[in-house]
């Protein structure tokens, strides 16, 4: 397994300003791809997927005393002692405004939309998701903060159900299991496989788990999508590989999950949770898979540039293989503008 920590270029305004876009895709050395991009810039042959995570939507609604029991009271104190200064709505709004204006084909949100799992938070998060786009253009999955405490689904993520279900093309390939995850959404040559690693945990624990049933369906889905010749994007909140997070924050069945990825293959895995940009790559039976973690979309930490960021993935079929380019877009705290901080080709084969 190879770990490639992303090199970022974000910083003062004299670096890569908004609006200065380098057309690396059109300058590809492949004549086939160059012709394809120049003649069909937004056709089905080029699919743009935007990915953001760890929204931690603020301001947090006023909590009633009866809501602050068990784990929530610790989270409430932690929020008011510092986290509310880290996760800022103004930073999130600047970032999402830029994302929406760029009009990607689809948007993936990989969890932690809320903070304490208060019922009112889920309603606000549903409004925020609709601001990003309609459910057929936005896919969401839950994170550990979205399962902060045990809550009846109708008071929680049920409000996001339209963003967390298969589309018709995906359901035709892979029937969604009764547990609701994984579900598949297909868009032309690209298939999103959405997982849930969100489970309620004890205080000071932010771990996740897929479980044997979900892992079994994941294997079946990846095998079927491979036979269909699709570009497979796996969405998960927790980092899916062993050693990517400490024990109290890890995916408990990361080893088993990695084994499935090796046995079945995938083209791209997107996650959040660690609030940092990381890139891993390892070999599978169908070729290399790239695993990318993205920072929090609302984080504004002094001295950490970029903090808030999202990534765009430009996916195109290239002969018998694929080309996938990642473009990072991040907020520069001092100016509250969004800059292109990174551009790299993740695969071209």
User: Oligomer, anyone?
Assistant: single chain
Low-pLDDT residue intervals, each spanning 5 or more residues: 5-44
> In DSSP terms, counting alpha (H) and pi (I) runs of 4 or more, how many helices?
7
- Coarse morphology: globular
Strand % is: 15-25%
Binned, the helix content reads 10-25%
Based on DSSP secondary structure assignment, what is the total number of beta strands? 13
Helix/strand order, N-terminal first = EHEHHEHEHEEHEHEEEEEE
* Strand order within the widest beta sheet: 1-9-10-8-7-6-5
User: Could you tell me the mean pLDDT?
Assistant: 84
- Main sheet makeup: 7 strands, mixed
**Gap between N and C termini, in Å?**
19 Å
**Estimated structural class:** alpha/beta
User: Which radius of gyration do the C-alpha atoms yield?
Assistant: 19 Å
Explain this structure to me?
The structure is a single chain. The protein has 349 residues and is of the alpha/beta class. It is 25% helix and 25% strand. It is built from seven helices and 13 strands. It has helices spanning 31-39, 71-86, 89-102, 119-132, 168-173, 212-227, 254-264, and strands spanning 2-4, 46-52, 106-110, 138-141, 183-187, 190-194, 231-235, 268-271, 278-284, 287-293, 309-318, 321-332, 337-348. Strands 1-9-10-8-7-6-5 form a seven-stranded mixed sheet. A six-stranded mixed sheet has the order 4-3-2-11-12-13. Strand 7, helix 7 and strand 8 (268-271) form a beta-alpha-beta unit. Helix 6 packs parallel to helix 7 (254-264). The longest helix has 16 residues, at 71-86. The radius of gyration is 19 Å and the shape is globular.
